[in-house]
Amino acid sequence: MMELRIQLIPTGEIILPPGKNGENYCHCCKVVASDGVRAMMESALTARDRVGVQDFVLLENFTSEAAFIENLRKRFKENLIYTYIGSVLVSVNPYKDLEIYTKNHMERYRGVNFYEVSPHIYAVADNSYRSMRTERKDQCILISGESGAGKTEASKKILQYYAFTCPASEQVQTIKDRLLQSNPVLEAFGNAKTLRNDNSSRFGKYMDIQFDFKGAPVGGHIINYLLEKSRVVHQNHGERNFHIFYQLIEGGEEDLLRALGLERNPQQYQYLVKGNCPKVSSINDRSDWKMVRKALTVIGFNEDEVEELLNIIASVLHLGNVQYGGEEGNVCITSDTQIKYLARLLGVNGAVLTEALTHKKIIAKGEELMSPLNLEQASSARDALSKAVYGRTFTWLVNKINASLTYTDDSHKNYSVIGLLDIYGFEVFQHNSFEQFCINYCNEKLQQLFIELTLKSEQEEYEAEGITWEPEKFKGIISILDEECLRPGDASDLTFLEKLEDTVGGHAHFVTHKLADAKTRKVMGRDEFRLLHYAGEVNYNVNGFLDKNNDLLFRNLKEVMCMSENKILNQCFDREELSDKKRPETAATQFKASLAKLMEILMSKEPSYIRCIKPNDSKQAGRFDEVLIRHQVKYLGLMENLRVRRAGFAYRRRYEVFLQRYKSLCPDTWPNWQGKLADGVATLVKHLGYKPEEYKLGRSKIFIRFPKTLFATEEALETRKHSLATKLQAGWRGYSQKSKYQKLRTSAIAIQAWWRGILARRRAQRRRQAADTIRRFIKGFIYRHRERCPENEYFLDYVRYSFLMKLHRNLPKNVLDKSWPTPPAALAEASEHLRKLCMQNMVWSYCKKISPEWKHQMEQKMIASELFKDKKDNYPQSVPKLFVSTRLNGEDINPKVVQALGSEKMKYAVPVTKYDRKGYKARPRQLLLTANSAVIIEETKLKQRIDYGALKGISVSSLSDGLFVLHVSSDDNKQKGDVVLQSDHVIETLTKIAICSDKINSININQGSITFTVGQGKEGIIDFTPGSELLVAKAKNGHLSVVSLLNLPHSQSDGFSKLKAEM
Prior knowledge:
7-stranded mixed β-sheet; cell membrane
């Protein structure tokens, strides 16, 4: 036997740990309770004594009410508020927030068998959802319990669960949001704080959630029942009006309140002070207001509709502040300010409204008469208008929400439904009136429905024990009430009570002060009657029964509302009412009819039950009032339900449903059973190994006694689903892949044939084009020397095109590249123009890239080229060398020389050798060029200054030596004669002197010798001869002899290339 392993989760429940694949199961756990029913895992654990059992069916003493309540108490103390009675969920209101409604909890309950996890409202919601999906039958969840037991919260949790777990799309998400957001809106307008519940639903609500074939919520519909309109004008002490009034006053913006004529103080309004409870610690009206405004936007209200809706709410408060004065029979309104506000908010004429609130219209013999109202009648008319405006606006609001939830997709009109019934709980107050009578009547009908659907097999036992539900008594009371309202004469609440005594006075469950014994009379008023309900005795005060049942509004008040410019009120008050002569149905009759329709709706669906219990009257967390709970257990019929679950069959299904679901578990019934349904089910259960005591076969249904039998069948089905799914998937994949291959093969053949045709046509077309081209080319070649004609135009165009493309590929790369393709004769002139344009473009591009420094260098080089190219042997050696701005650094020139020069700016300096005019002795000197003169320096002295104006010319030999002569004017007395100098950079030096002195045309290049002036009319001669080494000396003939080195051949273009590389 497999070891039983358990896990205690944070909520205190005990569950089976998940298997390897995440499933919850136990293959061979033989844990069976002593009574033979299914064994939930808690029954085998010692922790059961602390937390109680999860299912009351597992109680050993299941007939004991004390054991039942003790189990509830244990679980309540451990914050385990949910417990099962079979498939019925019992919920105890904890009056505090529990961390059991998170997304993780929702995931845990999604798609899990009902009994595999601990009791929870999510389990009920998921079970209904899966039943709807698998069995294709509409479901409903009936939430019952008295006021304050948590019914409204339960319905909200179910909606939240469906919103989270159901499939979603963009459209579906919109519906989900609207379903969820309808709750805060309806609660604001239909819920109020009562003595027993801070958020009590003062109307009944049945909501249908519509699901498409994929299980996604796609729409919804809400039906409302019997709004407690009297709360608008009156509240018991300790109670409040509807939430929306306080939310508007507390949360509304200042501008909004100013526009509505409201103050941020509920004590200023008569309709809000009667209960003397403007604020409640558990309610945050400001945050609730923000939630309501957001919800209205999500549902689809536009700004105009919201404005008109709030105008109506504000107008009800102003109506309550309308004050009357004057003499009896001549009532007038003393609060003109309220009338002004009402006229603007309701969109009606103020004078007409004033008259309607102080007079009533009487039609007698076809004539209309205006009869003044007394003070009491006027106040009643005002209150009736307030109730009518609020009640009809609430109905309009529900219809508006329904319109936003409407399923609009006509392509799938068949949808499944899960209904949620959240309707008033059984109410017993100190003062019970017409509203409590209707509410308790509704609860009687729901209890009767519960009996018919779940306790039908126990009807005989109920009758034997005297626990018979008799809703017929209400039919009698309602009929009598209607008769009294409709009969002519002075009908009153007391005459209604007297008629009740005469008609139903003999019924065992009815008693009045007149019919009661002496003991009972002490606790009953003369205007009360008592009914014995299934939940206990309730005293009803008949005061106001007739007025509330009639629910009449004076005709002239209806006429005023029909003339309203408020679009909502225009829809609420139909003008056809004014022409309809038929008396409207009474409130009780309308309610009874709508309740009958509700019963029909619920009877057509598969029900699930949530029975809510209130642990105490003080709304305190952790307090367990045993007396109060015992009373609720009794009137909810929970003990009777438990006895049925233990004695009867836990599961029953029609043969066709059972066989359809489980036929795959038996080879004989799979895939289809051809015989009778009963025989098919018998074959199936025999194959599954059902024991005779575990099931019974009826005429059209199978009854299974133990849930464990059903669980084992479900587990087998889940296992079988995997193998079936694998086979179906394999077959489908094979079929789909084969179909896909056939389609691909057919498509490939078609594409290949089409493509081959295209290729063949393209080849043929290319051949034709090639033949035409060759033919035209040959013909053009033959006629090439003729004038342009159709025969040679193609050839000539081709020749031109070929030349231009060849030129495009072989354009010169730089200005020194002189290559150019040979053009055809027809393009010779155009070729020459293109060559010039190309050269101009290259020159322009080259010049654009030259820097100022390089431009200056090139200018000097160009001057040097003009002066010395092909004239002086050592010029080619100077070409690749850059000219510098000076050959002497600052430290090479004595500061005294610089001081002597003064403001003259030095442009060039170079070391030179000066040869004396007598003896030709060589002396080292420095040659400085300024803007105005050339200065020869000897260390610290200015030896000679030659003004450029006195410089007649410059002589230099054609050989490779560095000697040159500066010829000065003989008229200049400052000069002793011409100056003979030698420089290692003679080309650079002479170019600089020529530029500075502007003597470019005064440089003479001599062959053989140079004659110069020595002084005093004497001349000297310098002879130049080539030789193997440089030699400067005085010859025997008295001349200066210069032997110059022979110059090796040197390519000038190579020099330029080297110069460019250096730059």
